[in-house]
Amino acid sequence: MENEIYMLRLYIAGQTPRSVAALANLKKICDTYLEQKYEIEVIDLLENPKLAQTDQIIAIPTLVRKLPEPVKKIIGDLSNVERVLIGLEIKIVE
Amino acid sequence: MKKLLETELAGLEEELKARIKEAAETIEAIKNNEIDAFVINTQSGEKVFTLQLIENIYNIILDSLSLPAITFTEDGKIIYANKLFYDLIKIESNRTINSMSIYEIISSSSYKAMESFLLNSSGVEIQEMEFTVNNETAVIYNITAKVIKSDGVTPFNIIIINSPKEIKFDTPHHQQFTSSELIATVVCDNNGTILRLNKSAITLSGRPVINIDFDTAFNLCSPEGKKITINEMQNSPEQAAYEVVFTRNDGRIFYLDLTKESLKDVQGNNHGFVLTLIDMTKHIIADSKAQASLKEKTMLLKEVHHRVKNSLQIVSSIINLQSMHLTDPAVIGIFSELNARLNSVSLIHEKLYKSEDVSEIRLDKYIQDLINYIRDSYNLTDDKVTIICNIDPLFFGMDDAVHIGLLVTEAITNSVKYAFPEKKGKIWLTMKMEGNQTMLVIKDNGIGIPDKLNIKDSETLGLQLIKSISDQLNGKIEIKNDNGTELKLIIPSVRK
């Protein structure tokens, strides 16, 4: 479990304020709590709406944790750090 | 089979639970304003709708309205204004007001109304609001606005202006309100409450003093220290100007030129007044510094003249002391001539340090003093030789005055010494402006000069001095016999 990699996928819609905020919040959280152990894939649904089917996305922005399994979703702009950490099951090392 | 069905059902239940959880989370995120786009399944596949697109729908509605309207967010940021609104506030539509604050386009007097409207939960409200037109302008609109609050995903407000009551002000001065950044302008109502002030006025007062009594915001008094209040200005004519001293809260003092102009609408009703305040502090300080430095310079110059005069008097005293030991009358004569010459110069310096103006000398008084000296030193009483002066009050610079003084001394002592063997006679001295030249005539009724005497190659010091002085003054000298001797000197006013 120590060395597992987080594969994260963020769905956004162009440059809407919440999309921009979500990406910034995610980067901050990952840098703080996951160090090098993560990969972020950003999918802009304005460019390719069909990709919404893959993860059954309704609201934007939405973050999907692909790995480690099981797949998890966090809906919103990730401004609530606590909720994101719980949703991603990230244990804070004291 | 049954078992398989059960597992299948359990799986479906799990998935359903997950979907419900996701839906709940989505609703929560919407509530928290964390969502601004949705993916909607349409017949032609998935489509993404952003909230900006939803706002666009409102923009289209606004554009189709036949009334000026504007939308803005809860914190007052303008989202969109239709063309009629741009027309109303007289801003060209290529200069967008989008993203500006609503507070930037309403008058400060309407801030409270706007705030109470923003705090109000929802619904339709009618408020009177005053919009600043053309970025702080001449025309003030009194608007009855219908304000609608949208309860949409991102809450925002719409103002629809349904009855613009326009008050057009007639004061040309009001126009300047916008343009000049250098001139502080304050608009007050009839009670003296500040309705509006430009940036320059805020800078001057040191704080935004909107809705404050003018007298409280600007503590003004006259240069003599008398309080100047709004009341006093109100009772003055429609247009009035004052020189005022403004003591700011931080203790800084400003000298201002204040003008007051009544603010009337086209019907002639008084709505208050416009005050313009021009900061003259720098000029006044510079002026008083220049005055002080000039005063100092004058004082120093007077001191110099005083000392020169004293030095000349010391020389004169030495000569006097020396002549007391002389017996030869010819030598004594030379000594007293020398003293007369010294005196004429020393008198100039005395006049200069005693006068207000150190650059010019009033010639009539100077020459009168010179003549009194000559009278004293040659012991002339009126029954012996009378000197009659007729001099216009002319002003000359110091150098010219010295020259004229020396020349007068020479000419008068000459007459006194040589013209009257009987020691009885008259000397006339006249000096006046004639056209652009000054005419000096010294005439006596004595024995006249020897016909052979030629001023150009005269060997006597007196005549040589007279010649050289007239050259210095660019003057023309004439000496002739006419029932006595007449010396005429013409000095041009404009010289090389």
Describe the protein's architecture and organization.
The complex is a heterodimer of chains A (94) and B (496). With 94 residues, chain A is an alpha+beta fold. Chain A is built from 3 helices and 5 strands; from the N terminus they run βαβαβββα. Chain A has helices spanning 17-33, 52-55, 81-88, and strands at 6-12, 38-44, 59-60, 62-67, 72-75. In chain A, strands 2-1-4-5 form a 4-stranded mixed sheet, with helices on one face. Chain A is globular, with a radius of gyration of 13 Å. Chain A starts with 5 loop residues before the first strand and ends in a 6-residue tail after the last helix. The model of chain A has no long low-confidence stretch (mean pLDDT 85). Chain B is an alpha+beta fold and 496 residues long. Helix content of chain B is 41%, strand content 28%. Chain B has helices at 2-31, 51-64, 83-88, 111-119, 172-179, 199-205, 214-217, 230-234, 281-324, 329-354, 363-377, 398-419, 461-472, and strands at 37-42, 45-50, 69-73, 78-81, 124-131, 140-150, 156-167, 184-188, 194-197, 220-221, 239-247, 253-264, 270-279, 360-362, 385-391, 395-397, 425-434, 437-444, 476-481, 485-492. Chain B has a 6-stranded antiparallel sheet. A 5-stranded antiparallel sheet of chain B has the order 4-3-7-6-5. In chain B, strands 15-17-18-20-19 form a 5-stranded mixed sheet, with helices on one face. The longest helix of chain B has 44 residues, at 281-324. Chains A and B meet through helix 1, strand 3 and strand 5 of A and helix 1, strand 1 and strand 2 of B. Strand 3 of chain A pairs antiparallel with strand 1 (37-42) of chain B, so a sheet runs across the interface.
Topology of helices and strands:
The complex is a heterodimer of chains A (94) and B (496).
Chain A: E1 6-12, H1 17-33, E2 38-44, H2 52-55, E3 59-60, E4 62-67, E5 72-75, H3 81-88
Parallel strand pairs in A: 1-2
Antiparallel strand pairs in A: 1-4, 4-5
Chain B: H1 2-31, E1 37-42, E2 45-50, H2 51-64, E3 69-73, E4 78-81, H3 83-88, H4 111-119, E5 124-131, E6 140-150, E7 156-167, H5 172-179, E8 184-188, E9 194-197, H6 199-205, H7 214-217, E10 220-221, H8 230-234, E11 239-247, E12 253-264, E13 270-279, H9 281-324, H10 329-354, E14 360-362, H11 363-377, E15 385-391, E16 395-397, H12 398-419, E17 425-434, E18 437-444, H13 461-472, E19 476-481, E20 485-492
Parallel strand pairs in B: 15-17
Antiparallel strand pairs in B: 1-2, 3-4, 3-7, 5-6, 6-7, 8-9, 8-13, 10-11, 11-12, 12-13, 14-16, 17-18, 18-20, 19-20
Helix pairs in contact in B: 9-10, 10-11, 10-12, 11-12, 12-13
